[in-house]
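Exercise 3.2. Students should predict the tertiary structure of the chain below and write it as structure tokens, then compare their answer with the key that follows.

Predict this chain's 3D structure.
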Amino acid sequence: MTLPDNVECAPEQSTRRPTDIGIALREVLVKSLASNRLTSGVFSCVTLLNTQPEDVSVCVLPDVGPQMDVSINIQHKLLEAYCWENDIPVLRVDSGDKLSAILKSTATNNNASELSDTSCVLVQNPVSSSKEDVLVNKFYNDVMASDIYPRPIIQLPV
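Answer key:
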């Protein structure tokens, strides 16, 4: 079966706004924090990746930019390489401050102290996928896993 020439194959691609993925990622982060499926901080993330890499659905790294410490850039490169080897999607966001603000604004007293380091955030697999989880995975498969360079940086809403 073939499609007629005048039918678009992916209309959702053209109507999706760039901010939609940022909003969806924010919701994924908020929901995973509420259900204790979020790990933050380099040491905690490396520990989880070393023991249970199959349980991680996405790794979120803030963009460090050229003015940041070289050691943070090296840590991010090593985390990206490990995630790549274990088929874990890596998404870059525009600001560590926005990422921290989103997580701290929704944190409860129980998990607020664990969010002091947001230089790396891992989201574990959900029990059932929400529409935001599906959108983030679709974005990764369509854009990040393609041969588009440089990789887009997701703009998180404030």
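Discussion points: The chain is about 45% helix and 10% strand. Residues 1-16 have pLDDT under 50 and may be disordered.
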